[in-house]
Design goal:
Elements: H1 12-24, H2 29-41, H3 48-60, H4 69-78
Helix pairs in contact: 1-2
Length: 81
């Protein structure tokens, strides 16, 4: 049975990061906090086949021709200046 937990005195910067992560992942603050705790307290190894499947799923979601070799090189160089 799930238990209720109230957090008090959360630093403003941590709250802001949690809120931003929740919005990014389309979760409530509560769900994001649980996901963060699970990730730290219950880490699980991801197999190579799971990583490959996820990469293929992500690649399948891209538009054909959305990325060109020149565009990729330009994006990589932008972060190095």
């Amino acid at each position: 049975m799930p238990t209720t937990l109230t957090l008090k005195g959360i630093p403003d910067d941590i709250y802001a990061q949690l809120k931003a992560a929740a919005e990014l992942h389309h979760r409530s603050l509560n769900s994001e906090a649980i996901a963060c705790l699970e990730g730290v307290l219950l880490p699980r190894r991801v197999s190579a086949s799971e990583r490959l499947l996820k990469a293929r799923e992500l690649r399948a979601g891209l538009k054909i021709g959305a990325f060109t070799p020149a565009g990729i090189d330009q994006a990589k160089q932008q972060g190095r200046k």
